[in-house]
Amino acid sequence: MKYAFPDNFWWGSASSALQTEGAREGETTWDYWFAREPNRFHNGVGPQQTSTFYQHWKTDIQLLKQLNHNSFRTSISWARLIPDGIGEVNPEAVDFYNQVIDELNEQGITPFITLFHFDMPMAMQEIGGWENRDVVDAYARYAQICFELFGDRVLHWFTFNEPIVPVEGGYLYDFHYPNVVDFRRAATVAYHTVLAHSKAVQAYRAGHYAGEIGIVLNLTPSYPRSQNPADVKAAHIADLMFNRSFLDPVLRGEYPADLVALLKSCDQLPACKPEDGFLIAEGKIDLLGVNYYQPRRVKCRDSAVNPQAPFMPEWFFDSYEMPGRKMNPYRGWEIYEPGIYDILVNLRDNYGNPRCFISENGMGVENEQRFIENGQINDQYRIEFISEHLAWLHKGISEGCNCLGYHMWTFIDNWSWCNAYKNRYGFIQLDLKTQQRTIKKSGEWFAATALNNSFDKE
Ligand code: BGP
Hints:
Layout: E1 2-4, E2 10-14, H1 17-20, H2 29-36, H3 53-66, E3 71-75, H4 78-81, H5 91-106, E4 110-114, H6 122-126, H7 133-150, E5 156-161, H8 164-171, H9 183-206, E6 212-218, E7 222-224, H10 229-252, H11 257-265, H12 276-281, E8 287-291, E9 296-299, E10 318-319, E11 327-328, E12 333-334, H13 338-350, E13 356-360, E14 365-366, E15 372-373, E16 376-377, H14 380-398, E17 403-409, E18 423-424, E19 428-430, E20 437-439, H15 441-452, E21 454-456
Parallel strand pairs: 2-3, 2-17, 3-4, 4-5, 5-6, 6-8, 7-9, 8-13, 13-17
Antiparallel strand pairs: 1-21, 9-10, 11-12, 14-18, 15-16, 19-20
Helix pairs in contact: 3-5, 7-9, 8-9, 13-14
The chain binds 6-O-phosphono-beta-D-galactopyranose.
């Protein structure tokens, strides 16, 4: 069968500043944490070098062109642009981002720019990070500076990438700095992130810039083990906490009432100011980026909660391992292609069918060298992964979902946070020693699909 996509469909990939550019003047929480606890990073590899995009941006954009990208998302590093987060703008960073943006536009690749992709300037973390409302204001100022500097040539802005992840990693589950385990602080961080998002949207509207503004959320559909009411309730609460805590404010302009009631009943609500509600209502977006990697399967808890243990989302559910699930064993994530369709249908039926696109989807695989044939990685598994997800996406579009594009994570193998270079995601293989780039089979497949705006599959 031939899967053809609508005209002007966005074909591209996503990346982020910290994972590709290499070291900079302004320190981030990642540099700070790595200097102190290198053992937390796979093989002790930190964010200093990554894939040297800062040096190779021009040839890398040529490679994007070779992959027939018509769009590409990356982020601006707040710490590179404003090394202390709040003070002077670094002119070298302005030059760098101007060159990248201009070159992308010149090559016919529309730049999609994220303002914050997990990379908090250390100076901002030192004053409390997202727990401090001054950091919310500093971020809003940074966003406005970006709009003024680049807003004439960047028409698609994203305030945050996966804002729930720094909440989970930094304040609940100990996989990002500052490695706190405290639900109320996590809720405050999440809440202030929504306020920061809304302030950036407000500034964008006030400035009457030419393009549109949105956010990128990792939506993990919550599937209950069964239709038993206890399992269904568990899935509902997981959905409230991990999806709707950001989805509802940015699309509906308010929090779900049952999430607020739940946190209130547990005495976990962050401190609010009366004017916050108005601000959140102003944060409604034009375009939603959806990152989809895995579903979340849950069941009701099997055991009683230990009242001495820190309050956690898992007080309301256990995770559920569905027998027969398909796994990506390297990342430990379930692969469930229909999830992409379920997300789009949910957006269509419950959120007014917003303009959206898949902003990340991908498969990290370890030791891909074993698949080299005639000098090229033959990553057939990645081609299958993409085409199966695209088939479900296509079904969503044919049923009226407003999905405008598909971006893969990622274009060149890059540095993956605590996993460093363990799992490779790229269309292009990166040789860490020589920094040489070689297109994988999946890159060729994607280039053909983008060129034809379609692919064939049984
Ligand atoms: C997303 C992030 C990316 C990227 C990707 C792969 O959550 O937006 O930055 O890293 O996941 O995940 P990982 O690198 O943890 O394997």
